């Protein structure tokens, strides 16, 4: 499936010996660990790295980079391995640089609403660590990803509508450059106009420009009241209109997720719920008790006027957790629609005014295929996913899904949208990057050539040259 | 004052004739218009460009860039001329590219909460244009700047605490590269993970990487209720603690500005107010009637517990406007403290936990000098300004202010802050960029050399090489 030819890099004689001499048992050569690091959560073929280095310190990373750069050996940073578009697959071999051992929360500064973490910290572990501070870290892709990986892919999740994406969450980064330098992109001030915004250049660069070895992250106060609700709609358009009107009314929606009827069916089976099989919104409201009550009143009235049914409430933490766990497991629920199937996921993002149309046309296209597929998305951002449940042994199904995905991406681009709202380009979306951004891609290549002239970092990702 | 030697570029013979042949009367060679474009709002010496081009279209910009690049003539983009750090001063001569004629609002998309504007649109004109849509554009530096200039300097203003800075406000840009290509950095989706974040690379690049010819901007719904209040505090620490605790309590402060006692004195004189001469917070609250009332209750209680006085209310639009006009004219008020004086402004930004200490130490330093100087700032961001009112003919005063400014910047850096929160590096902050960001500056230079190899765009700004 990789559109980039996997022209494996030839490892120079003695290179792995030099690595072993420097890193000892932290360098793993066994087939099992290499296979694990060559696999991905998604449908991309496994490509083994030549070795896996378990880095423990920034110095480890810098030394690895210098050894690899000198030998022309690729380095692919590796976190939780939960990226969707083959972003961490070492398609040209080389070193898979596993950063999960760098998992310390270095500092929490409650009065500054920030913290400093190593890249291997996972988002759930960070929130667990923060639980006594009254603060939380909001960004939540479905998987329990590492924060380094989330920054590298510019991840977002269910509450981006209120709290933004990783580009908003990262205040600054420590990065190892392909020259082995260790740089800091910003001080700890909440804003700065000092020079180029390297922070946001590295966020979303998918490990192609530098290796993130530390992150300074913005935190938010845990709201006094958190309230969730589920509401089914007669039409998809009614659900989307409700969200647009709520934003127009100044309701600071914390989360607003759409699940189409088939996704609701999948969730009902997987998470043992009994929701009506309709286009459905999952809401979450944050604020004081009075403010949440007022937000709910406003949204209920809008939903009612747009063909929404009764609100099903979850004010208790356990009920809320159950609901949002169901949402976060929606991918597995969708895959599970078919016995023995594997998942194939994609995402696009369009201007809000085109979202209902884009989802409706996509659903129509999906319904022409016998392959089960669900739609779910972050309505407030105009971002949605399609999850296919495919037979892993059927080349014909793979080809059919690829064709549907191509039509989806082209539909989103025709609506002035993007080929990916939050998964990144990786391998899977390279085909459309030029169509989406034209000459800007050549500017990206100039940046890549300037910062990584020997193409050491995650070669073949985002674009080739 | 320019720390970069003004080594003027030699204009090749025939170059201005070629420009005149292409642009006719849009190319201005007169001394008065050149002097106007060589001056700045601040204390930097006037440096005349060789000519001023009044661009009317993106094609004009691209043609100008190609002619200048071929001849090695510098191009400095020019908007309202309100930048503070000499950002638009053509220190090496060449063409001042005036974009104020490109002032069309190209499209407003209310359901998408965005609009498309040309770079010469000023922020007040945009909000005037939007007034019937129920939406507004929040970013408000003191001056009525152009949106292109605001993007180029990564400007912010009084409500960044709630609505962010230009990095958050810009969804995408049309940019002319030094090669004369016209690129678009992003589609109109509210978020994207497609490739490098060129949008935010150009935002804050101060015209050194490309010329912005169109901007897609995020808009926000005008809140149902806007309420302002003024509150004096016995101590600066009490004012800052009130703000930190309000954020911790989840109060979504829309604006929170601090003015020190001397700035209040200046404002009282200039804007005919009668505020107590104390460290004072100007608040603004946005939301529904009930939510604003609740926010005010919370903040009043916190202010009271932190040594704040009574809240002076301005719920009527005229009173509110008067109050915020006074805040926006604070710079002129400060300069006016002394007859015949000119202004000299600087800004730094520190983590919130260090803000009270940083302002207090700075005030102590200012009080050792006879030169009048005020402090005002955006407390929620940890960002503050010092405005000096100096005798334009006194080299000794200039030297004294430069020394105080140097101590201020070094104080901010020692607190893990930045040398500029919103004015940019321009000429004035270059001396500290390496101290602030170390090896990251070399990475910035690599980006500059890759994208503008002949150093055509605003040479000598941010850094030299």
Offer a few descriptive terms.
seven-stranded antiparallel beta sheet; alpha+beta; Uridine Diphospho-n-acetylenolpyruvylglucosamine Reductase, domain 3; Vanillyl-alcohol Oxidase, Chain A, domain 3; five-stranded antiparallel beta sheet; homodimer; 37% helix; disordered N terminus; 465 residues
In short:
2 copies of one chain form a homodimer. The first copy, chain A, has 465 residues and is an alpha+beta fold. Chain A is built from 17 helices and 18 strands.
Task: Write a structural description.
- Two copies of one chain form a homodimer.
- With 465 residues, chain A is α+β, with helices and mostly antiparallel strands.
- Among the domains of chain A are: 105-221, Uridine Diphospho-n-acetylenolpyruvylglucosamine Reductase, domain 3 (2-Layer Sandwich), CATH 3.30.465.10; 223-424, FAD-linked oxidase, cap domain/gating helix (Vanillyl-alcohol Oxidase, Chain A, domain 3).
- Chain A has helices at residues 15-23, 31-38, 58-71, 123-130, 147-152, 160-163, 166-169, 198-202, 236-248, 261-271, 289-305, 317-328, 330-335, 352-367, 395-414, 430-437, 440-451, and strands spanning 27-28, 51-54, 75-78, 95-98, 105-109, 114-117, 135-136, 170-176, 182-184, 211-218, 220-221, 225-232, 255-259, 280-287, 312-314, 342-349, 373-378, 383-390.
- Chain A has a seven-stranded antiparallel β-sheet with strand order 15-12-14-13-17-18-16, with helices on both faces.
- The first copy, chain A, is globular.
- The model of chain A is unreliable at 1-5 (pLDDT under 50).
- The interface between A and B is large, with 95 and 95 residues.
